[in-house]
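step: validate -> pass
step: tokenize input -> pass
step: predict -> running
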Amino acid sequence: TDDDTFSNVFCENSKKLIDVHLFALAAQYYSVSNLGVSTPLEDLLEALRGDNQGTTGIKTDEFMNNKKSHEVQVMSELVDNIAKYCGIKQVIDIGSGKGYLSSFLSMQYNLKVYGIDSSDTTTNGAHERNRKLKKHWRAYQSRARANVESQRLEKANDRPVQSEINCKAITEKLLNKTSSLQHQDQVTTQDLAPPCGFTGIGTSESSKQTEVDLASRTQSDESELSEEVLAILNVLPADAVEVFSSSRSDYGELCEEEKEQRKMASLKAKASKSRESNLYFPLTSCITAETELSDIIRDLEDCMMVGLHTCGDLAANTLRIFTAKPEIKAVCSVGCCYHLLSEQFENQEDSPEEVWGFPMCQYLKDKGWCCGRNARMSACLALERVAVGQMLPTESLFYRAVLQVIIEEIYGVTKSDRHVGKTFSKSSSFIDYVRKSLKKLELDDSKLPDSCIMDYYEKYKHRMNELEAFNMLKVVLAPCIEVLILLDRLCYLKEQDNIAWSGLVKLFDPVKSPRCYAVIALKKQSCS
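step: predict -> pass
step: emit ->
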């Protein structure tokens, strides 16, 4: 497009918006989808798989909400394909939260997953879920084996010939699947490593191994029984976990740590014998750009890092750790909460030694680029949801805007480290909202009568339509600000010498999950 195409959006003298239609067209033009800077998910999966087909198995919609189920299903399939392409079995889930992605990667794809979250509450919750899960899991396995045998006998009695044909086909399929898994476990990492560089052609894997032990076959049979799996998952959350809590503050408790290490070693030995290597370890640790993963994960090996909606600077730090650590062969990171990003040039005080969330790439650093909090807040808005009729919460935004006027004029406060949070949904009226908010901000509401609060409400009520229009303009602009943040991260990866391929990939339906773009990269493989 010509440089002058959008020159008439704003008045040259007053800098005010004068052409809303052109403004919307300009915003659309500078979005990820229109700029052509993203890689289609289908193309990436095809390149990673080569001739191999995707797997089907456990469904997540029985134990997650619709949004989370959609995210976990799509992202876990991609992560599994990347792991296979790179010949790795270990995954590190940064900001793992309740462990939905981690546990699904473990159960469905037989990956060894370490979920790292900064919250002790999350780790403790995972420990309790693990206790319950182990209690029910043995019973589930026994029932599953019994049902498999029962179903086979029934089919054999009802339709002997057809049953024999079906059973043979299923058995061959299971043998191929388990032999492929077993083959991956037995060969070395060097054998599984893809060629140097990401050429867009997936590696081919042999699946002709014929010697499969009975335990592996039984486990594969069970994985086909999605209904049986869902039976236990309906009882418990999806954290098929084995807990190993590791935070830097725990180093003094050596006895407990040694117990945990022995416990983990014992579990690993058992898993090796039974071929059940799908373990999920929730860890408690705060991740920064300087984090040494080997201090947190004692058996760190070649692995990949993932992050499903890593908040603020955590997404940027995930990419920095990936580029710095040779053990990490790939990364798949979906960020969120752009408003929490730290910016190097937002304040005049420049601290060269500090690590910032934005900008990451040298190009924007050289230009001293700054978004500002208002722009980052706008980047969090969901244009696609608004487009399908999920309108903005105008009333709550109006409440918040009038509250800010009250705080500034009555209390003289222009900036605070405290937050109002979700007070609107818990308030019965505007007066109730203001008083609850003032308490959260630790401001004395006794000097503010109800009549004064309502006077402010009435004064600005006629401007609610203006506020709605202003916020709609912010929504339209949101994709432009988001693409700037995403391209900054992608450009940072492009600047690194050890990256074979990197790209932006749209993983999710933006109506279900507005933060739908993943930053993905694969490291160069060393050739022997």
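step: describe -> The chain has 20 helices and eight strands.
step: cleanup -> pass
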